[in-house]
Specification:
Elements: E1 25-29, H1 31-34, E2 40-48, E3 51-58, E4 63-69, E5 78-81, E6 95-97, E7 100-104, E8 110-113, E9 120-123, E10 128-133, E11 142-149, E12 152-158, E13 165-166, E14 188-193, E15 203-208, E16 216-221, E17 226-230, E18 244-248, E19 251-255, E20 261-264, E21 272-273, E22 287-288, E23 291-294, E24 300-303, E25 306-307, E26 320-325
Antiparallel strand pairs: 1-26, 2-3, 3-4, 4-5, 6-7, 7-8, 8-9, 10-11, 11-12, 12-13, 14-15, 15-16, 16-17, 18-19, 19-20, 20-21, 22-25, 23-24, 24-26
């Protein structure tokens, strides 16, 4: 001090930096708060706002709705018995569009609901709801469904499940508007990629979710026709019944057998196995038919499914997990 060398002191500064890999997907078991109720046999879960809507067929073979708020201090499931809609509802068909839920049953009747448990019949000629077909503008978005017209199954667009606009021309076969052979109208998983700036990527991607095929089909609005094409034969992983796809971090991810994740940036034309850093926690039970939801905080939520583990094969899975890539935090 005061310029006198005899007063000088030496200090050591120990700076410790905790390194976090930005590309690691970190998973957390949230079953303590969100574990699926024991009565649920199979389910489809959607997220609307901050509330999860779990539509289920329970052990009594009846159709129920369970809800839970993910922001609640002490979240708990609330159960309601659905009205009007029968237990033959196709869970894969259930979708939320413009604030309304839609569903189809095994007799090809379509229903709508504003709250998830009080339903109204809307149509008697809808085989299934494939997903949201994006338009050039959000106001032009519609639900893409499969309906019967002149004795054959065709695509149709609707915004309310009452008025169906039959698609007259598809690119796959200019001579027929019939749904192409091999297109998955039952047993599928789908995602909608909204890219209004690049209409070539403004796509509804429908992937077969059967043990015989996981082929992905791309569907998009074209000029005067519906662009429908198969993304060739997938050879990266073996077909898996109950595969689930979801959009995340600019990719379509596929959740397949043994809990492995694959991804594609070409809507299924070429799949690659996700890196080890993106794979599931080793404690997660291998399953099929899960519900996968991505929320506004970039968390991936995995709900239940049907176990494919040797020790519990075929039994419902109750666990709920959520994960997020570090750089999206």
């Amino acid at each position: 001090a005061n310029g006198n060398p005899a007063d000088a002191r030496t200090y050591t500064v120990d700076i410790r930096i905790r390194k976090v890999d930005p590309d690691t997907l970190v998973w957390t078991n949230v079953s303590n708060s969100f574990r699926l109720p024991a009565a649920i046999k199979e389910q489809k879960t959607l997220l609307v706002g901050t509330k999860f809507y779990t539509f289920s067929i329970d052990s009594d073979n009846k159709f129920y709705l369970y809800t839970i708020d993910k922001t609640a201090t002490s979240p708990s499931w609330i159960k309601s018995a659905a009205t009007v809609i029968p237990a033959t509802v196709k869970l894969e068909s259930i979708i939320s569009f413009n604030g309304v839920f839609y569903a189809v049953d095994a007799s090809e009747k379509a229903y709508s609901s504003t709250d998830g448990f009080t339903w109204q019949a809307r149509n008697n000629n809808v085989r299934n709801i494939l997903g949201v077909l994006p338009g050039k503008e959000k106001a032009e978005d519609s639900l893409l469904v499969v309906t019967k017209d002149l004795g054959k199954y065709v695509f149709a667009k609707t915004s309310d499940m009452q008025t169906l606009q039959v698609v007259k021309t598809i690119s796959y076969d200019q001579s027929s508007n019939e749904v192409p052979v091999g297109f998955p109208v039952e047993g599928f998983t789908s995602v909608t990629n909204n890219d209004r700036a690049n209409l070539n990527r403004n796509i509804l991607a429908v992937t077969a979710a059967k043990s015989a095929s996981n082929l992905t089909w791309s569907v998009r609005q074209g000029d005067g026709q519906l662009e429908v094409e198969s993304n060739q034969k997938n050879t990266t992983f073996n077909p898996f019944g109950g595969i689930r796809t979801f959009l995340y971090d600019g990719y379509v991810y596929a959740l397949v057998n043994k809990g492995l994740l694959y991804k594609t940036n070409s809507f299924g034309f070429k799949w690659v196995e996700a890196s080890d850093k993106e794979q599931f926690n080793s404690d997660m039970r291998a399953a099929s038919h899960q519900s996968v939801v991505v929320d506004s905080d970039n968390y991936i939520w995995i709900f239940g499914g049907i176990s494919t583990s040797v020790d519990s094969s075929g039994l419902p899975v109750r666990e709920v997990w959520k994960g997020r890539i570090n750089r999206l935090a």
